Amino acid sequence: MVVSNPPYVPPGAVPHDPEVRDHDPEVALYGGGADGLAVPRLVVAAAARLLRPGGAVVVEHADVQQPALLAVLQAGPWRDAAGHADLTGRPRYVTAVRA
């Protein structure tokens, strides 16, 4: 299993949570690229190389990124790609299984 909370905040966005916004360094927050998903895409690619069939990946993302990250998973060697909400009901992470 690969579980990741990578930097994913899109450029220009400001994190909601004050403990994140006010204290975390930018390198830990901003994921790169026009949509903030450069690092999460690298995590998904690394998980594809590391996992055997049946292994699972879980990746956290910003609440506006779930459709784009699901598209990344659906284009790769994954099955059962799904988006999930956090405890506040916001779409915040995806899961998939290595085919």
Automatic annotation (TrEMBL):
Question: PANTHER family attached here?
Answer: HEMK METHYLTRANSFERASE, MTRF1L RELEASE FACTOR GLUTAMINE METHYLTRANSFERASE
**Coiled coil stretches, renumbered:** none
Q: Which organism is it from?
A: Angustibacter aerolatus
Q: What is this protein called?
A: Release factor glutamine methyltransferase N-terminal domain-containing protein
PROSITE patterns the record matches: N6_MTASE
Region Disordered: start and end of each range?
Answer: 1-20
